[in-house]
Amino acid sequence: MSEARIQHFYDETTGTLSYVVSDPGSGHAAVIDPVIGYSMVSGRIDSGPSDVVVEYVHKQKLGLEWILETHAHADHVTGAQYIKSKLGGQVAIGEGIRSVQAYFGPVFNLGPPFAADGHQFDKLFEDGDVFRIGELDCEVIATPGHTNDSVSYRIGSAVFVGDSLFMPDFGTARCDFPGGNAEVLYDSIQRLLCLPGDTRLYMCHDYMPGGRELRWVCTVDEQRADNIHVNESVGKAEFTSMRKERDRSLNLPALIVPAIQVNIRAGHLPDAEDNDIAYLKTPIDTL
Length: 287
Hints:
Blueprint: E1 5-11, E2 16-22, E3 28-32, E4 35-38, E5 45-46, H1 48-59, E6 63-68, E7 77-78, H2 80-87, E8 90-94, H3 97-107, E9 123-125, E10 130-133, E11 136-142, E12 151-155, E13 158-160, H4 182-193, E14 200-202, E15 217-219, H5 220-226, H6 236-247, H7 256-263
Parallel strand pairs: 3-6, 6-8, 8-9, 13-14
Antiparallel strand pairs: 1-2, 2-3, 4-5, 4-7, 10-11, 11-12, 12-13, 14-15
Helix pairs in contact: 1-2, 4-6
């Protein structure tokens, strides 16, 4: 069976890595964690980060089967629906999205037709679910802790880990969002670090600490040896203490207000109101 072909895309504004994963034999493909631009100043959408993905899929003559979200991101707006409108495919996420929706729906006072049942997505995955991209076997690994809905996707010898892990020199995800839990994240990361040492882990973000060049993939062995937060010598209690102290010092992501409202809707924008203008809400003294 052929190995997946993987092409990365980097959105410099949000530090986000998206991927097109394709089966060379069938030409079928998936997009993982797509980005669409959003200006907090003007409220305007910029399709540019998704357009480069669409262009690549067209150029490679791929057929898009899946648009896979590792979780409902708080740091960028998903391009899932934009890409679906151009290329088709099913938008999928972990079934834990329901609890994320249940929390944030009231925060943003999202009334009907919004419902915290995950129906906005085409597919909700459970831990251990299997699916295919062409002839490529894919497995869903639940990796909560950063968020309730976090999953990783194992496709051949590659695993797309979302925000649970960063490159070894940047560590691990924050756990102070609603539903986040440092002890749960530690256990999720251990599931990843128990994979074969040469398994390739693909990151969802890279912030290039120290001004180094962009990196998006490393091995399980590299993480075990060198991750500054959760290497082989770090136990759960030590990790949990570190993570809680570090999280207290972090600011909220700059795009959390628009991102959450759009991303828990699977990338659907709010409906226009009676003046034909759509609005995103900013809760005051709440987040």
